[in-house]
Prior knowledge:
The chain is mainly alpha-helical. Helix content is 65%, strand content 4%. The protein has helices at residues 21-34, 46-53, 57-69, 88-110, 117-131, 135-152, 156-165, 167-176, 183-198, 202-213, 215-226, and strands spanning 43-44, 73-76, 80-83. Strands 1-3-2 form a 3-stranded antiparallel β-sheet. A hairpin with a 3-residue loop joins strand 2 (73-76) and strand 3 (80-83). Helix 4 packs antiparallel against helix 7 (156-165), helix 4 (88-110) runs antiparallel to helix 10 (202-213) and helix 8 (167-176) packs across helix 11. Residues 1-20 are annotated as: Disordered. InterPro entries: GntR_C, TF_FadR/GntR_C, Tscrpt_reg_HTH_GntR, WH-like_DNA-bd_sf, WH_DNA-bd_sf. This is GntR family transcriptional regulator.
Amino acid sequence: MSDFKLKALPNDPSSARQTSVGGRVYDALRSAIVQLRLRPGHSLSEAEIAGQLGVSRQPVREAFIKLSEAGLVEIRPQRGTFVRLISKREVENAQFLREAIEVAIVRKAASQPLAPEHLRDLIEQQRIAATREDHSGFLRLDEQFHQAIAASVDCEDAWRVLDSLKAQMDRVRYLSLPEATPLEVIIDQHVAIVDAIADGSPAAAEEAMHAHLREILKSLPMLAERKTTFFAD
């Protein structure tokens, strides 16, 4: 395993998501993998992670199985568990599915009389995060932005489907900032999406979302070439 250290899970249930210990272990590991704090190819020790998180080995074992099903780790019998390398093919497939769903969501949002002040506030927070070079904070706000659009038109179930699809995409997004994809470009794309929603223009909203979600396909070949040890293909 790498020298990365996980923080122990909080004991106060009010400070943690109301879910099982296994679910919280899964969330902690998924976040570390997606944000590349646990890098592709690194081995994962069940005992070591349990010790760092302050839990027994059983919830870690359960989390490994769920992470394997999500395509983030590979369990090799007699050899161990490893963070999976990024698959370009899986990223492209996930992008295709995400685009189909989110374009439908934003078209619905632009077809309804919505006040996008909350979305504009998230964009302003992204500007601040960009100024501070807080890339993790910037991407958290990006997540909130897309989720807020889905919530505004009662599409939370669709967002949950997206959330399960995009783990591979999210790893590439963390890799891409800010070198491959300038933060200003993402902000401008978000502004275009919100303007189209505010104008009640489904066609413009659809076009803006298409352009935004295809940004990752521009950076993917360059990242795969530069970060060869991170990619499987």
